Amino acid sequence: MTTPHQILTTVTTLAHALDALDLPLFTTLFTHHSPITYDISQHLPQYPSQDLSVSDLASKLRLGLGGFTATQHYLSNPLVTVREGEGGKEASVKAYVTVFHFLADEEGKSGEWEGEDDVDGEGKSLTMRGSWDVDLLEEEGRWVVRKVVVRRAVPLEGERDLYKRAEERVSRGLVREGTRVYA
Known about the structure:
7 strands
């Protein structure tokens, strides 16, 4: 596997892990030797950039995305740059991202998607379009993430209060359970 392919595999696996809320997989994609910079302030200004441990970042993302019935992160047009850094090889990926967020209408349900028979269920959606800037480093022969910056390029499309409604679901204990990306 070539280095750019390995780097892109890490970044696309991150998108899959987010959508599945596969926290065990998610945590393997990050460096464990230093805090992770997670910056969504250019998408959601109320959340400042933070430097977090991998476990704290996983907890934040579970609560941030777990209130939605489902999400889908689509990455496109990735640009990969590889360079020698102070401690070894480093890389950056800039990719366009479109994120679809869905919240089922039915109150009182766990928020779990019921499978292919439920694809026509009623609900609200919100789409974000922007970019991901991801910094990675090579650790122990594999590429891991050390920084993620999310930038929104255009106004949100759909139900603008959906983030708030998803947060309210989490506060009521209605958090979507994760599934495994790789069985």
